């Protein structure tokens, strides 16, 4: 359940085990979890978050050691908090 203000992500694929697309504070965002690894990207407006690039505003990913990721929203919340802290430090 998404209860975070400024986060508009929707489940676009419930398989492998899941994928979310949308925005975080108006920036395009993408979460994907598959084959024991997850990734979360936030990119500049006008950029496709599904295609990771070095200039992404935030990229984070790691393995979770199992077949299924059971806490996608928990991971997303942590990444959003990290993104917002970086934005505060930059004064954005």
Task: Describe the protein.
Strands 1-2-3-4-5 form a five-stranded antiparallel β-sheet, covered by helices on one side. The protein has one helix at 72-90; strands at 7-13, 18-24, 27-34, 37-42, 58-63. The chain has one domain. The model has no long low-confidence stretch (mean pLDDT 82). It has 92 residues and is an alpha+beta fold. Strand 2 and strand 3 form a beta hairpin.
Defining key terms:
five-stranded antiparallel beta sheet; 1 helix; globular; 92 residues
Q: Major beta sheet, specifics? A: 5 strands, antiparallel
Class of secondary structure makeup: alpha+beta
Low-confidence regions: none
User: What's the order of the H and E elements?
Assistant: EEEEEH
Shape: globular
Helix content: 10-25%
Could you give the order of strands across the largest sheet?
1-2-3-4-5
Contiguous helical run count: 1
Tell me the Rg in angstroms: 13 Å
Number of domains: 1
Give the termini distance in whole angstroms. Answer: 27 Å
Percentage of residues in strands: 35-45%
Q: Compute the average pLDDT.
A: 82
Number of strands: 5
Topology diagram in text:
Blueprint: E1 7-13, E2 18-24, E3 27-34, E4 37-42, E5 58-63, H1 72-90
Antiparallel strand pairs: 1-2, 2-3, 3-4, 4-5
């Amino acid at each position: 359940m998404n209860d975070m203000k400024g986060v508009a992500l929707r489940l676009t694929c419930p398989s492998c085990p899941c994928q979310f697309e949308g925005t975080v504070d108006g920036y395009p965002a993408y979460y994907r979890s598959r084959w024991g690894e997850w990734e979360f990207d936030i990119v500049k407006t006008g950029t496709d978050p599904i295609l990771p690039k070095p200039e992404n505003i935030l990229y984070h990913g790691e393995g979770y050691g199992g077949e299924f990721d059971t806490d996608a929203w928990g991971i997303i919340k942590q990444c959003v908090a990290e993104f917002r802290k970086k934005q505060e430090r930059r004064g954005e």
